[in-house]
Amino acid sequence: MTIRLGLFDIMQVDPTDPTDPAGVYGRRLDDLTLADELGFAFAFTAERHFMATYRAPAPSLWLAAASQRTSRIRLGVLAYTLPLHAAWRLAEEIAVLDHLCRGRLEVGLGLGHRPEELAAVGIDPAVRIPVFQERLALLRALWSGGQVAFESPHTRLRDVAIHPLPLQQPHPPLWYAGADPAAAGWAGEQGMGLAVGFAPTAALRPATEAFAPARRSQGDRLEPPGGGPLALMRHVYVAESDERARAEMTDDLLRLGQLQPQAQGHRVAGGPGSRADRRAQAAAEVDALVRDEIFIAGGPATAAAGIAAAQRVLGVNVLLANVYAAGVDDERVRRTMRLLAGEVADRLAGEAATRVVSGH
After folding, report:
1. DSSP state of 289
2. What does the domain layout of the chain look like in residue ranges?
């Protein structure tokens, strides 16, 4: 099975970059245009609120813009924080987006991995699971085309019908993002795709093992029959060689360490000591980022081997690469994209063909 490659942009901005929001969005749209030309299968964004270093508070607006700069790549959100959204409003937004995307929309739904976002607007995080389930049922009912009447402590709808309905029928493909095994099994039973990641492969395995049989158990009732998208999200950095990737990442950590004590939630090399000592510390931290599976990084052969190893353990059929590490300039972001879509993809396809021939 050849893995499909996509992008996952959480819209975290480089703390060392003075570009204003309009400039950030413009550069990211240029990147999506390139990704479309390179043949990536997916491009997902995130939803983040009340965070100074993120630019993703309105993912529907972002996808509307992206839909006009692309023609083939499938566009989506991982994930809408469903308890934050009125079901009728989100159902309408998604239907319109599906038409703007000409049927290329993918819809991820989540509980909200940051409960403080919910609490900040008066939503009790303790009720997010029943609210999520209620609103998912309402989304599906509204997309079916009938009038919906419903009342609960969280929602009131009085004979509501939406127009237009989504272009994809009965609705765009749905995803759940999260690594809890019980939730992963539930997502499989619901016919949703599953996205896991940003944790070591071994920690993700219980979720993928719960998802796959639950998804297959739905059989021909689902499209595609017997299977569905199972995606791994990873930070990815690819250069022409392992040595160049490691040197460049080391330089980035050194520079970030001189400017601030923390960057993007990762360790950075700052503090006292000679430059040689700081560089050795930064190089060790790069090695740790790869060893701890926070990054897939290296030359094309090493990157392909890392992706293939995760695929063998987890059974994923999609890789969603976050190519925006702190300190990485536009040229290197696009180099990673080109190498992923080119030499890395070719190596993965060759390995998949070898496994088919050998029967593994």
Report:
1. H
2. 4-239+297-358
> Which pLDDT value is given to residue 360?
58
Q: Which two tokens stand for residue 91?
A: 């159902």
Angle between helices 201-216 and 300-314 (to 10 degrees): 50
* pLDDT greater than 90 at residue 272: no
Q: What is the reported pTM?
A: 0.92
Phi and psi (nearest 5°) for 297? -145, 150
**CATH superfamily, with its number, for domain 4-239+297-358:** Luciferase-like domain (3.20.20.30)
* 3-state secondary structure at position 105: strand
Which residue in the block uniquely carries the two structure tokens 């998208």? 229
| Mean pLDDT (the chain, rounded) | 91
Average pLDDT over residues 43-52: 95
Strands in the chain per DSSP E: 4-9, 42-45, 74-81, 105-110, 148-151, 156-160, 174-177, 193-197, 230-238, 295-298, 318-322
Structure tokens at 190: 């619901």
